[in-house]
Amino acid sequence: MKVALIVPRWPRHSFWDVIKFKFPLLSTSLLAGLTPPPHQVRIIDEGISEIDFNQEVDLVAITAITPLAPRGYEIADQFRRRGKRVVMGGIHASWLPEEAKEHSDSVVIGEADEVWADILNDAEQGVLKPFYRQEEKTDLSRLPMPRRDLLSRKGYLFHNLVQTTRGCPYDCEFCSVTAFHGKSYRMRPIPEIAKEIRSLEHSRAYIFFVDDNIVGNLSHARELFTMLSHYRLRWISQGPIHVAENEEIVSLMAKAGCHGLFIGFESLREANLDMMGKKMNRVERYEKGIRRLHDAGIGVYGSFVFGYDYDDVSVFDEFLEFAERNRIDGAFLPMLTPFPGTRVHQRLKREGRLLTEDWSKYDMATVVYRPKRMTVEELQEGFWRVNRSFYSFPSMLKRIFQPFALRRSLIIFGPMNLGLWPAVKQAERYFKRATVT
After folding, report:
1. Both 314 and 377 in a single domain?
2. Do the beta carbons of residue 419 and residue 330 sit within 8 Å?
3. Which of 117, 187, 273, 424 has a Cα at 20 to 30 A from 392?
4. CATH code for position 173
């Protein structure tokens, strides 16, 4: 069979569409690695290249997060009108399988690694089941080598995405990762990771370890970083701020080539953190943790969510002052988005505060619920202002371009900041024009 693995695009000119720093989806290259011959497989990322709906294909597999689901449904409908079989999966379809089934022949609920062979066999025989679900969570020791050769050579910031763990041991109210995986945290054998590292092209100089929490198990993390230190690598990943309190782990990360950590600070207000269930975060420890990471040469890419119940309009200036004072290298600054399947979605729906379930608006840049301590308009304008101000030249000069305090992480965070500066302004202009019309 000819199989197409498709990732839908973001809406044209939207916040995430205009950002030039795009990443491939690791799950597609893993599924391609699990596809045995004589099947022929290709990966189509619509954010990088257009879809040919008249292509010769026997099975179309579409994966989509919530804001991309409406476009995913449009793609599925077009292929089905041409008589092609369509399977849908991913986090959105897993939470709303009946909705996804209206646009597909079959839906995969949860992880697909260990049912993918069954799907291919059933599709070849013309007996696709309406739903597939793995009996057990994926055994990470059996992950294939991802088919990076199928990814577009242009348009991505990183090609080398590697996974060492899955899931997160924490249970934050807003988090779709925990909602999808539960509180499970699985670790991949270190020899398997080493084998994949050795397989990377010479461009392995930068790797993105896509783990939601690379230090969720300290014993595994120590072994991982020790192994990585034997290679000349530069990499980024994700982890909690309190890892900075462990001097041994920070030292091992730095020696192993860590240039940056994506850290979910989420809020500067303790009451919000308590409501989120993010009790491992304590605001009074943020600044010391950032200094320790910076001193080790590790950049800090912070995530701060705006619009939680204890936020008012002062929260935006509060963040900007904090970010510049602590020289945060980069930031993901979404507004609270209650994705289906999360506890916060259930809570806001129960409280009658959801404004829409038009999933295309669940893009982390559009207000879809009523905040408690500011108006919808104040939150929307605050979102654009805080992103515009953070990625302005004055802010960049204060945070990352100080000539007598340069860090090695500038190699990646410098271009990232410079690229996001025009993208934010372009996306805001489009958003406001679309809102007016």
Report:
1. yes
2. no
3. 273
4. 3.80.30.20
Q: Is the pLDDT of residue 202 over 80?
A: no
Of 148, 96, 12, the closest CA to residue 426 belongs to 12
CA distance 367 to 381: 10
Residue 311 has which token pair? 């936020």
Domains held by the chain: number: 2
Do 175 and 280 lie in one domain? The reply is yes
The angle at the Cα of 139, spanning 134 to 140, to the nearest 5 degrees, equals: 130
Contact 220, 167 (CB under 8 A): no
Strand, helix or coil for residue 312: coil
CATH of the domain at 56: 3.40.50.2300
CA dist., res. 366 & res. 372, Å (int): 16
As to burial, measured by CB atoms within 10 angstroms (0-12 exposed, 13-18 middle, 19+ buried), residue 299 is buried
No. of helices (H) and no. of strands (E), the chain = 17, 14
Helices 190-199 and 218-228 pack at an angle, to 10 degrees, of 30
329 pLDDT band (50/70/90 cuts)?
A: very high
Under 8 Å between Cβ of 119 and 98 = no
Q: Give the DSSP per-residue string, 205-254.
A: GEEEE--S-TTSSHHHHHHHHHHHTTS--EEEEE--GGGGG-HHHHHHHH
For 381, the token pair is 């304008």
The reported pTM is: 0.93
pLDDT in tens, 382-437: 999 999 999 999 999 999 987 766 778 888 898 889 888 888 988 888 888 877 65
